[in-house]
Every structure is written in structure tokens, then in C-alpha cells.
Amino acid sequence: MNNRSVGTASYRFVAWLLVGFLLFCGLNFSQQSSASTPIEQPALIQQGRLHYQAGQFAQAAEFWQQSAAAQNDPLNQARILGYLALAQQQLGAWDDTKRSIATSLDLLQSIPSSAEQQLVLAQISNTQASLEYAQGQTEQAIDTWRQASALYAAAGDQEKRIGSLLNQVQALQTLGLYSQARQLLSEIEQSLQTQPDSALKAMSLRNLGNVLRATGNFTTARRVLQQSLAILQSVSPSDLGPSLISLGNVAQSEQETDLALQYYQQAATNATPLIQLQANLNQLSLLVKTQRWDEARSLLPTIQPLLNLPPSRVIVYAQINFGRSLMQFEHPDPAAIVPILTQAIRQAQSLKDVRAEAYALGNLGSLYEQTQQWDEARRLTERSLLLAQTANASDIAYQWQWQLGRILKAQDRVEDAIVAYQAAYETQQSLRADLLATSPDLQFSFRESVEPVYRDLVELLLRRSIPSSSASQENLRQARQVIESLQLAELDNFFRTACLEGQRVTIDQIPQTNAAVIYPIILQNRLEVILSLPGQALQQYTAIVPQATVESTLRDLRQNLEKPFTTIQGKQLGQQVYDWLIHPIESDLQAGSITTLAFVLDGALRNVPMAALYDGNQYLIENYSIALTPGLQIFRPQTLERDRLRALVAGLSEERGGFSALANVEQELQAIEAEIPSRVLLNQTFTSEALKAQIDRTPTPIVHLATHGQFSSNADQTFILAWDRPIEVQEFGSLLRSADDRREAIELLVLSACETAAGDDRAALGLAGVAVHSGARSTLASLWSLNDESAARFIRQFYQELLNPALSKTEALRQAQLTLLRNPNYRSPLYWAAYVLIGNWL
């Protein structure tokens, strides 16, 4: 797990800190109590404030509890209980938080409405929303934050209103409501631009920039943060550090290492000790990540004295992050790391901060796991897990559940390890959308901090399978479900939102009289395949081949397939993959009269067209129609009504935006018009707005786009090119689903000139992302671009076959591919293999 900033050591904690800060920064602690308030009350409130801002939440709670108990004025008591609820929530004491909020609300109802009473109500509502959000009640939290925003607006307090709106953005992102989150962010920015320059405006812009980064809007985040920095340079030059750190985080998110380091170095210059610590720790983490060991070592003497600042949660997490960075050195020194983590544990205990203690203990357990001191590692991990559960810290708990599983697996306690992994998996599932919505770093550490939980659990489940037993069937079903969850998590990670919508059914519910579903799973030391045949028990077969060999074979196969002639090596590589995936089940497929193969592909397998697998005599496409599906669920299938087919067809034939001309596009669009009634947008008429207007006006079953496009593992680099600009994948999906009266999904989306990004071994994830996010039941696309006569011939033949009511979409695709394969001019897989159908194959 990456440790890129102090105080963000666990993912949900990012959101909690944001919520707590935005709520707390606007609270008016200096306001005096009524005349009946004992004279010591302001001092107690002030002491609580100082402890809270220092990250000493238990101590803050003690002072506020004393103050609230001694209050005679209901309004002040309600306000102080609101402060107390914030501290209690930070400590994970949810029941206590609920009681404080409920008591505060009761007090507010007992007094007449006034401007001050409404402002306190807004503060309590904000706190209540943050608790609801932390407990997973996201929709309720949004409603409560909206109430708070309205109250702040009525009171004329724009700063607090913006803070509440920013919290809503995080919650909307958690629910996958990307367009609403984006619209709200735009409204927030516009509101801030109307305010005069001030330190307060700069801080609000910085908060906005941080949220924009968290939602993956890096370009806008950079612009907003640069504006924040420019304002501070004018009105408060001594407070540049936080904005510089935020700019460094954006640069790091965009993998601009040197620029990120420059920002961190600037932030550490002439800054407060805490800002110096945060900036230097961010530098160290990035230097370690990029293996710049000499620079990293030179930074250690600067950081170590700063770790002795007064104890607080921020300092505890700084010590932990420092220790974790040291653990990632090329030659870590456990003797130097143990005292650092031990100090973090002791300080967390002195602060009565159970959450921080759980995180510190677990990291010490991680160190002992690294040194293979298994018993001590297990003892510490079990203790930290218990504390994390006590503190309602699910985001920390899943890490220690996973760590416990690894330790037990190393001790060859397979059954116990499975229990721990299953717990980690279930916790991750409950946090899936929340993790992505609140952690910009997770998108870049997914393969290290999330994906292994799924793969390790599958490996254990399939390891203990007993052929033909009921236990084996349960293991296979669960392994299949875990891989399905991984597929969804990858797509969520790609979009940074929960992206599956619409009426979906599991593959098992679809009539499959002649279809087999194949689930290849790439594990570290072998390739596992689960086979689902109609009316039969699941089957498992294994190819003992290392992951590195599988991936290098697939990479070489892809390179050979893109050559303009058929290569002997390409056929040999295709046969190797065929032997892994298909050869063991040839007789089962023949016995079951299988005609369609639906693949749920894993990892690097997505980059290779299954149609080009070779059995020594024939390609796979010569015997089976082939479909891909991103997971176990697809849109509810619906047969195409051939006599009512209509198409919206758009394309670019001219050079545009640095992209070359597509000379055969006009011929392609004319071929479609000749077969199906079509509305056509060509060149200047194919703008993003025109496409949206056509989709909104009269939804059609088929949308065909013949234009440049790129599928990448990065959503920001996945796009479809219109005349006026590239349409990024998030906007593209929203655009295709924008018609208010669209009752049915698009039946078929065709992207005929797109390609996967060169050099990106996970680029096909972008193709799956486009297919899923578009809402189309089926998507026909190409793994590489073909702008020649073969593409026009393929499209013409495909639509001719599609009009045949006796053929499924996959069979229409197959027949079009065979037409090229049997043409001497287009026999090479370059011309016919690139086309893949994703989704519903009926």
C-alpha cells in the first residue's frame, strides 16, 4: 500500500479526515457562551479545540464532555455536543456519536428557531451526515448534507456551504454518480470564482483541488490548486506549503515524478515543522517507489527529528508511514524500524486512539511477516485486527485480514488461511465503491493492494478442490464468484466509480443449450480454467505454467497476429494457448454439441483475440462463434428485431486533431446505409453535441462509430474521437445513456476503427470499460485499428449476416470473419482476428 501523505494511511480514513476537516474548520469556537455559562466553559471548549486540531481526539472529547455536562444554555450545549460527536466519530465510537447527535438535535428542537439555532443545526447535520457516510449509509448522508448546505446557504455562510458540498461530491462518487459529482464540482468552482481573493478562498480552492484529485479529475485539480497557490503568494506567502503538497500529489498521480518532488521540496522550505514532515515523507515515499535509493537515504536525517513533535494522530501516522517506507528499501534494517513502530504504538495508546493503535500494531506485524517471524507476526496481526474491528475501521481491518491470511498460508494452515482471506474479501466487497471514491492513490496501487486478495483466495480455493465432490463444486462456484468480483473491481478502479448499472442477469440464467462459458484464471504458478457446460457440474482443469510464461507467450502472440502475413511462430504460439485453454475440453465440447464459446478473460488474456487460437489445423473461429463478457453478469438478453433495425452511424474520414484520415470510412458508412435504415453523421456533422442530440431525439438499437479511438488501462486516456474533440470514456458512457426516454439499452454498439493503446499490457480493460459503461447489451470493437478495404468488407458482411434472423450476433461476427479468412488477400489474422464481441452473444 502506498503511503503518499501523512494522515492518509488508510483509504476510508482519507474521507474521514476530509469530512472532519471541512466540518471543523468553519466551527466558531471563539463564540462566547451566554451570561449564565460558568466562566470556565470557554476555556474547556478552547482546550478541546486545541486537542482536536492536534489530532488528540480522546483528550478533546474529555474536555467537551466536561463542558457539555456543565452547560445550562441549551443552544451552547447542543453546539458543544456537536463538537463532541466529531471527536467521537474520529475515535470510531459510533454509538457514542449517535447519542451526542441525538441529544444535540433534541436540545435544538426545544428552543425557538433563530439564525444562531439554524447555524448550529447545520453543523450537527454535517456531523450526522459524516457518520452516516462512515457507516455506509451513503444515500442518507447525501440527503443530510444537502439539508446542511441549504441551512448554511440561508445563513450566508458560503465557506461552510462549500465544505458540505465537497463532502457530497465524495458521497456521489461512492455511489458511482459520476455526472452528478462532476456537475457539483463545477458549481463549487464557479461559486468560488465569484469570491474576492483571500486566504479563506485559497483554502477552499485547495480543498476543491484535493477532491478533484480524489475523483480522478487531475487536469482540473492542477488548475484549481495553482490558483490557490497564486492567491496565497499574494495574500499569505507563509502558508504555501499545503497547496504545494497538494500539487505534488497531483503530479504524482499523473506519474510526473520529478515535478512532484520539486513541489514537495518547495513545500518543505521555510514551512512549519508539521508541513516539513508531511512534504518530506511524501518525498521519501516517492523516492522509495521509484527506487532512487541514494536520494531516499539522504532524506532520512531530515525526517527523523521531526518525528519527535508532540504526539497526535498525525504524528503517529507519520511514524508509521516512515517505518513503511523504510520497510520498502532494497535492504531494510528491521532493528531500525522496530523502535519507530513501537513508538507509534505507545503514542497511540497514550492518545487512547484505538484506530491509530490498530494501524501501528498491524504494520509492526507486517515487519515481522517480512522477516518471516511467523508466530510474532500472527500475534500482532490478530491483536491489530481485533482493535480495528473495535474501532469500526473496516478499511484497516481488511488489510490485517489479508495479512493474517498470508501468514497462515506461509505456515501451511490452508483452511485457516482461507477463512482469513474470505473475511478480507468480504470486507473489501463492502468497501469497494468507498475505497475508490476516497483514494486517488488506490487506482495506481490496485495491483499491489487489492488484486492479490482476490487471486490469493482463488488460488487457495482451487488448491483444495477435490474432483467431482460437492465440496469441490462449492469451491469452484466461490472461486468463480471471486474472479467475477475482481473483474468488477478492476472496472470500478478504471472508472473510479461503481460502473455496472441496468437490468442484469447472471450467465447461468441464460438459456445455453449450445454455449459453454470458459473462465481462465492466471495465477502465479499455474493457469486454472473453470468450465461451465449446459446442465452439467462445473469442471476445473489446470496448466502448470508460470504467470510470467503465460504473459510473455500472450505478448508474443499478439505481436505476431498484427503482422500483415501469417507467421509460423504465430501459429505455434496460438496452438500453445489453445492447448492450455481448449485442448483439455475438446471432447466435452463436441459431446455437448457446443457451438458458442463465451470467455470471461483474465489479465493479459484480454489482449489476445480468442478467434486466433490454433489447434494445429484450424483456427478456433472456424469451429465456434466466440463472445467475451466482462463477468458473470450481462444485460438481460433480448433478440434483435431484424425487421425493425435502425442505426445511428457516425464517422470521420478526414484528418482531425492530429489523427490521420480514415479513407475507407465513407465506404463503410455507405455499406451500412445499404443494409439498414440509418441516420448518418460524417466529418463536420459528427460533433459531440450532434451525437448527443441524435441519441436523445430518437434512440436506435444500433450505434455505429467509425472513428479513431483508443482503449487504455487509464480512463483519462480512453476516448472516442469526434470532429470537435475527443470524448473521454466517462462522458461517452453518459452520452449514450443520456436519453431520458430510453427504456431499453442499446442493442449493439460498434466501434470499428478503435484500438488498444500501444505498450499498455492492460489496455483491453479500457475496451471492457467502454462496453460496460455504454450500457449496450453487446459491443463490437477491434483490438487494433484496421483502416483498409478489409475493414469495409468486414462491416458490410457483418451487417448482411446480422439481418439473418437465424443467426446470433456472435454467429454473424463469425461468418464475417470467415469471409475474410477465406479470401486469399485477407487470410492473415491481422485482418479478421481483431474484432471481438463483448456482452450478450444471443
Describe the structure.
With 842 residues, this protein is α/β, with parallel strands linked by helices. The protein contains 34 helices and 17 strands. The two termini are 42 Å apart. The longest helix is centred in the middle third of the chain and has 26 residues, at 470-495.
Uncertain residue segments? 1-39, 440-444
Distance between the termini: 42 Å
Total number of strands? 17
Specify the helix fraction band.
Answer: 55-70%
Largest pleated sheet: 6 strands, mixed
| Number of alpha- plus pi-helical segments | 34
Structural class by helix and strand composition: alpha/beta
SS strand fraction? 5-15%
How would the global form be characterised?
globular
* Spatial arrangement of strands, main beta sheet: 9-8-10-14-16-17
Name the average pLDDT: 86
Question: Descriptors for this entry?
Answer:
disordered N terminus; 34 helices; 17 strands; 6-stranded mixed beta sheet; alpha/beta; 842 residues; 5-stranded mixed beta sheet
